[in-house]
Design a protein that fits this description.
Blueprint (H helix, E strand, L loop, with lengths): L6 E6 L6 E5 L4 E4 L1 H6 L4 H6 L19 E7 L3 E6 L6 E4 H6 L13
Antiparallel strand pairs: 1-2, 2-3, 4-5, 5-6
Bound molecules: zinc ion (2 copies).
């Protein structure tokens, strides 16, 4: 297993709190739920964006789209997230999540 994509701890304090993942390599990621929704890897959401699944010009999200209804770990490789607006086709693999870590270290360009 790659420690960079192996979660040690997954933390969600409430339906609108950011999702926090502590990785086996000691790195910590914090995903604002709007960010998390926008990186949804499902076919529907990816179709709206580019290769990365992130829309170039993001459309407004429906009400409830940034609230988590339930979250389950599936098969130790992904998180299945059901959103308050009923969207439930997103399986967030840990490698996808780590790739989209929004922290300064991973995303220096977002600081600009
Ligand atoms: Zn989706
Ligand atoms: Zn990071």
């Amino acid at each position: 297993m790659n420690p960079e994509t192996e979660p040690r701890e997954i933390e969600l304090d409430g339906p609108t709190a950011p999702l926090r993942i502590l990785w086996e390599d000691g790195h910590e990621s914090e995903y604002d739920l709007e960010v998390l929704r926008r990186i949804c890897p499902c076919a529907v959401c990816s179709a709206q964006g580019g290769r990365s699944g992130v829309p170039q010009d993001p459309a407004p999200l429906p009400p409830g789209a940034t609230e988590i209804k339930s979250i389950h770990e599936t098969g130790h490789y992904a998180l299945h997230i059901t959103w308050r607006d009923g969207h439930d086709t997103g399986y967030y693999s840990f490698s996808h999540l780590r790739l989209h870590c929004p922290c300064r270290e991973c995303r220096p360009r977002m600081d600009v």
